[in-house]
Amino acid sequence: MALKAVIVVLICLTMAFIALPVASLFLKSSPDAVLRSMNDPAVKDALRLSLTTSTLTTLIVILMGTPLAYVNARFSYFGKEVVDSLIDLPVIMPPAVAGIALLMAFGRMGIVGQHLNTLGFSIAFTTLAVIFAQVFVSSPFYIRQARTSFEDVDLSIENAARTLGATRIYAFFHVTLPIAMNGLISGAIMAFARSLGEFGATIMFAGNFQGRTQTMPLAIYTTMQGDLDVALCLALILVAISFLIIALVMTLTRRMYKNVRD
């Protein structure tokens, strides 16, 4: 009985520790201040930039990551473990390290950036740099989920399609992809969420310029120093988006497991 009581107390403390800061955002914000802050140029610019760059990032991650995830799910090749390690590296790499790594690679004096700079093409401290940073940190979330989704597709179904005359590409688009779709969408949503909340790599590689590189996390950091209401407004928007993302992922996960059972 005592053990059950201890477990209940620990669960309540853990839930309170997580829920209290989130609830405090709503308790310390007044509806009038939030509505007024919505018209602030910093909020509008940050919201527009974040949604635009995160959407583009997600599309790029899907296009780049889907073939890689499928190959890693279906084939064995020399160096596969190294590839898997590189895919997972941005997840454990500190954001500031990711930012300076991007700067050393694509900055004006970087390994690649110096050559681009001689051609009059600059990436660092531009909106494109925001997308680069977001792709770097969010791609593992999609690729890992996509690989798992492809692995869950019974290989015999693909083989059956191929014995009926389908090419590997046809079987991929008409058999494998539809079956794995819920998992792929879930991974894409997680990649979108990660890119939307990216801070460290963005501020190191892209800077913090309103309307050009200042995403919502960066705008929160900036407005905290002068206008708390604007910072709270941006924080509430991100919390609302986070709840929506969690709901979508949970719904897709339930559908995926239901399909597997059926």
**Rounded average pLDDT:** 89
CATH superfamily of the largest domain: MetI-like
Instruction: Give the C-alpha Rg.
Output: 22 Å
Report the CATH topology name of the largest domain: MetI-like fold
Largest sheet: none
- Name the structural class: mainly alpha
CATH architecture of the largest domain: Orthogonal Bundle
Using the coordinates above, name the CATH class of the largest domain: Mainly Alpha
Number of distinct helices? 12
- The share of residues in extended strands comes to under 5%
Runs in which pLDDT lies below 50 for 5 or more consecutive residues are: none
Fraction of residues in helices? over 70%
Count of the domains: 2
Q: Name the assembly state.
A: single chain
Which descriptor suits the 3D outline? Answer: globular
Distance between the termini: 40 Å
Strand segment tally: 0
Subcellular location: Cell membrane; Membrane
Main location: membrane
Protein name: ABC transporter permease
Pfam family, one: BPD_transp_1
